[in-house]
Amino acid sequence: MKGAEFSLRPARVAWALLGAAFLLMAVGLCFVHSSTLGDTSTTMKQVIWFGVGLTAAVLLCFVDYHVLARWAWVGYWGSIVLLLAVMVFGVSRNGARRWIDLGPLQLQPSEFAKLAVLFALAQFLSRPIEELRLTNVVFKSMAIVLLPFMLILKEPDLGSSLVLLPMMLAMMFVAGVPASILAKIMGVGAVIGGLLVADVLFAPENWRLIKLKDYQRHRLMVYFGKDFVPANATPEQKAYYRELQRHKGWNVQQALISVGSGGLAGKGWRQGTQNTLGYLPRLGAHNDFIFSVIAEESGFIGSVTVVGLYTVILFSGLMIAGQARDRLGRLIAVGVISLWFAHVFINVGMNIGLVPVTGIPLPLLSYGGSAAVCALLALGILQNVHLYRRSY
Length: 392
What we know:
Elements: H1 15-35, H2 40-60, H3 65-70, H4 72-89, E1 90-93, E2 96-101, E3 106-107, H5 109-125, H6 135-154, H7 158-162, H8 164-175, H9 179-202, H10 214-223, H11 235-261, H12 273-276, H13 290-323, H14 327-351, H15 369-387
Helix pairs in contact: 1-2, 1-13, 2-15, 4-5, 4-6, 5-6, 5-8, 5-14, 5-15, 6-8, 8-14, 11-13, 13-14, 13-15, 14-15
């Protein structure tokens, strides 16, 4: 395309983005090792996943994002097939079916679906701006996101499905969809969200319109401070539900204690008592609650450093979006940074009690193969848009 130039000269690389990513990976490996009480095998698995993700991200940089976008719909429908396959062949854990067992590794299709949806939506929205004012085009762009949203929600994986929505709105805004239409979409979304909360908190069990898994409903009720002990329960049932409610709120309480007890400089690496004594969930300390471990062991200074590194990545992404050579590149960059922002906001928010616990990884810090690879692929896509930006 005219005006585009590819070069791997040092001046063309987004070094701030690259440096922040490597520092986050280093921090992630340190605290995955700490949160698993020195489990070397888990740490080495994460090293391998980082290696796979970095290799894939580098390879992406040698292919113009326009070429990648030509395959957007193949990737999109491939991700839909994988999300459907999870329902049939998926491995079930703790009541959720999110993984496909491939022997030595387990694939989480919802992570790859996020990137596939991003590319498909960017390709669709990069049409002439006049068409974006047409109602049918807006509905089609929403349908691109809502189909995988519903499939991921069915697993169930509320956190991974929710991050698709702010990504969709940000991309539609940057593409040029009129603000009045976006306001109506957000208004409808707010009404649906309000009805969901009201349905969960106040509707009798036989009258509920929205069917959630029990653990999802309990998380919301704990977050809003609602007692979920049935009014007509027997004394034995009341004792059971009170103990269940105490357990459901336990993780959030212990995460808050971890964050607060770190003080200014923390208790020291691998010295956090909340984790070592088992107050944080053993299966979640290195995933959903990794930020609590970091806050306890490195304190306010470590927490601010982590947030600062994410800020560098997000602002680098905004600069890349502003320098993109066309609307497709701008939409891809905005999609990546809005996806990352949603992950960081929700995960940190649930660690400090701002949002309900949804089970979503903190990019490059939480343990997880598919999540680590896709986080690095997303950064590789950002670097790609930067490398193929306009010539000045």
